[in-house]
Specification:
heterodimer; A: about 375 residues; ABC transporter involved in vitamin B12 uptake, BtuC; 2 domains; two-stranded antiparallel ribbon; 15 helices; globular; B: mainly alpha; 4 strands
């Protein structure tokens, strides 16, 4: 009975991200308990805001979580990942600035309402998504290669939209999206993330999107035979990711009220893919768990923040994260699980023979129970 | 694209490899001819072609490795990172270790490349992990390691190395007269010779050896390759090892060309290598490709870049946009060609 409970817990998809989060928390607790300190301080605009490592994780993890929502759908539907999200964020952000500032990079007032600029960014993001989606679904090009096109062209296009100038948005209200709204001490990104999660939760609940996406991801041919249009489902997944990208671009651009074409959202595709993988979703498509991905995004951010705490430079960070990814995909690979499973089965068989020969069986049972636990962990 | 439509009826008779190869060569010749006719000047001198070769020898070598991986149905995007790591490691070794020897630095380069190839190949081939994810992690690991080895970019001062770096090979009869009517012999760097030798060797390997043919077989159809008695896992593993080895060699050639170590070296090289491989007629789905085509793919890519630069669109972003546009066009051609061919076979 005990065994079945353990199995139930460990086989849950949320198990891996939660365990990773706990592990990170324990490491931080041992190294520096100050990690968990949250203080209320006054920021430059005179508003009381919360600050601390945990708030940083919540703040920056939220933009990643938004991307993870779209990335999960793309991964599930197409069995591949979109590596152009960072570059598309640059394009959408650049378009937003172009609308807000017009042709003058240093305007005295914004040239269009923020909502219009955001809608334009959404349109641009969805167009980029549609471009990727069309290549993948209609022309049957592998997702990663298809998105390689925008990955290369994205930042140059973003620079071209604003004639390679760096416009600065004069309106202080624009900074609310990536910072704090006066009077509310919680980062605005958290609310944006909650809104996105609510929307996608409602969509998954009341439409067949989730079911169709999984069906296409598991077996495209049988999905087609069941009357689902795989081309459209894949296309839609990329368009939804484009929308998520536009929201992330709003946050990213709002944080600094300007843009740096080469640096904005750099390497974010890696984090987004990692969030999906950490959530226990198969990177080869099929079944997915949206909430595990969202949680995974926060785990990634927690990892990043922890690494920063150890004074690791942002350039070297990639190496450490790469090790985490490799370990993660290694242990979640079906082949490895198979090998480990076989190994423990052999061990068990050996133990059973030993058990017949020698001592009482109670001890052996405990050991075999433990073995099973290890197996499930992997 | 018109060409592919025109040839519609012939598709079933020409093999995929030859068809895509001929498209590439035709486009390259047309492009170079138009460059000579419309932009004239520099493009008429053979030295321009040699310059393109000299500054892109490393790209040719990485593209060769990628072609092999792609022919056997995989992908490797860690090559750019490996090149950067090699430049930095060799630079640090040559300038910070007393009594540094350039031969040892070459060994370091090859060793790093092999290590990446072996680890990645092992994970991909024997554990069935998606090659893209493995090599993506490899790319980030290599880039991160580069900054861990040394943070700031610097020029190598080692004398033996500088001597090797400045060595040029003169091509007889291809020189030209400059403004003052002084004959200037055409020169190429050592890296070009390395690249061209590798092209010939790999071309022969892929065409005439058992291993070479099994790359095509595995990439074309894993199941039937297995039934033919080919060790699929070992073949995949070897394709990654060769790609890693070539990335290491490319790293050293790149290092010889620039003479410095930096984490920013070879940024986006994996992308250019994949693009040239695709332009050269290698099919992403595996089983189709040609080493000589890859050489032409690199040349087409670099010619376009040179044309963009000499057409006055010097701004940095145009290069990225043109490469992406070219890649997009070739991917679409591939997609259409394959579809037409399938349709032709069905009829």
């Amino acid at each position: 009975m005990n065994k079945s409970l353990i199995k139930k817990i460990t086989s849950n998809q949320l198990f891996i991200p939660i365990m990773a989060l706990l592990l990170l928390a324990v490491i931080n607790l041992i190294v520096d308990p100050g990690f968990f300190k949250v203080t209320l301080r006054t920021n430059n605009d005179g508003n009381p805001v919360l600050s601390g490592s945990l708030i940083t994780i919540l703040d920056y993890g939220s933009e990643l979580a938004i991307l993870a929502i779209g990335m999960t759908l793309v991964t599930a539907a197409s069995g591949g990942q979109d590596i152009s999200v960072g570059a598309t964020i640059a394009i959408a952000g650049s378009a937003m600035l172009r609308v807000l500032c017009g042709t003058n990079p240093r305007p005295d007032a914004i040239q269009a309402p923020i909502i219009v600029a955001f809608l334009v960014a959404c349109l641009v993001g969805m167009l980029c998504g549609a471009f990727n989606g069309a290549l993948v679904s209609i022309f049957k090009i592998q997702p990663m290669i298809a998105t390689l096109i925008l990955f290369t062209a994205g930042r140059p296009i973003a620079a071209w939209i604003n004639f390679n100038r760096l416009p600065i948005v004069p309106d202080p209200k624009f900074k609310y999206f990536g910072g704090f709204i006066p009077g509310i001490p919680i980062p605005t990104t958290v609310f944006i993330m909650l809104l996105c999660v609510l929307v996608i939760a409602l969509v998954l609940k009341f439409t067949n999107l989730g079911l169709y996406t999984q069906a296409v991801g598991i077996n495209e041919k049988s999905a087609r035979l069941n009357g689902i249009n795989p081309t459209f489902v894949k296309f839609l997944a990329f368009v939804i990711l484009g929308l998520c990208v536009a929201v992330a671009a709003l946050i990213k651009v709002s944080r600094i009220a300007t843009i740096n074409y080469n640096v904005i959202a750099k390497d974010i595709e890696m984090d987004a893919i990692l969030a999906v993988a950490l959530g226990g979703n198969a990177l080869s498509g099929g079944k997915f768990n949206m909430w595990a991905s969202v949680l995974g995004a926060y785990v990634i951010q927690a990892l990043t923040t922890t690494l920063y705490k150890f004074h690791i430079s942002s350039d070297a960070l990639a190496a450490y994260k790469a090790v985490v990814v490799i370990l993660l995909v290694f242990f979640s690979a079906p082949k490895v699980r198979e090998y480990v499973g076989d190994f423990f089965k052999k061990m068990k068989a050996k133990k059973k023979t030993a058990q017949l020969v020698a001592v009482g069986d109670s001890a052996a049972e405990v050991i075999s129970g433990e073995n099973e636990e290890v197996e499930e962990d992997n | 694209m018109d060409k592919s439509k025109m040839k519609g009826g012939l598709f079933s008779k020409v093999s995929d490899t030859n068809l895509l190869f001929s498209i590439t060569v035709t486009i390259f010749i047309l492009m170079y001819a138009s460059a000579v006719i419309f932009q004239g000047g520099g493009f008429r001198k053979p030295q321009t072609l040699f310059n393109i070769l000299s500054s892109n020898a490393a790209l040719i070598i990485t593209a060769l490795g990628l072609s092999i991986v792609m022919i056997s149905g995989g992908i490797d995007i860690s090559v750019g990172g490996v090149v950067a790591l090699v430049t930095m490691s060799c630079a640090v070794y040559l300038d910070y270790c007393p009594g540094a020897n350039i031969w040892v630095s070459m060994l370091i380069a090859v060793g790093i490349g092999l290590a990446f190839g072996i680890v990645q190949g092992f994970l991909v081939a024997y554990f069935d992990i998606q090659p893209f994810i493995v090599t993506l992690a490899g790319m980030f690991f290599a880039r991160g390691m580069t900054t861990i080895v040394h943070t700031k970019p610097f020029n190598v001062e080692n004398e033996a190395f500088r001597k090797l770096k400045d060595t040029r090979i003169v091509i007889p009869g291809a020189g030209s007269y400059n403004k003052h009517n002084i004959y200037q012999p055409a020169k190429i760097e050592i890296g070009v010779v390395v690249a061209l030798v590798l092209v010939v060797v790999l071309f022969l390997v892929l065409r005439y050896t058992k291993l070479g043919r099994s790359f095509y077989a595995v990439g074309g159809n894993k199941q039937s390759a297995l039934m033919l008695g080919i060790n699929v896992r070992r073949t995949k593993f070897l394709s990654h090892v060769i790609c890693g080895l070539l990335a290491g060699i490319a790293g050293y050639v790149y290092f010889l060309n620039v003479g410095s170590g930096s984490a920013a070296h070879a940024t986006g090289m994996e992308m250019n290598a994949i693009a040239s491989s695709i332009i050269g007629g290698t099919l992403l789905t595996g089983g189709v490709g040609n080493i000589v085509g890859t050489l032409f793919g690199v040349l087409s890519l670099c010619t376009i870049q040179n044309m963009v630069a000499s057409a006055g669109l010097g701004d940095a972003w145009w290069t990225g946009i043109t490469i992406a546009a070219m890649l997009c066009i070739f991917l679409l051609i591939q997609s259409i060609v394959i579809r037409q061919k399938k349709r032709a076979l069905r009829v």
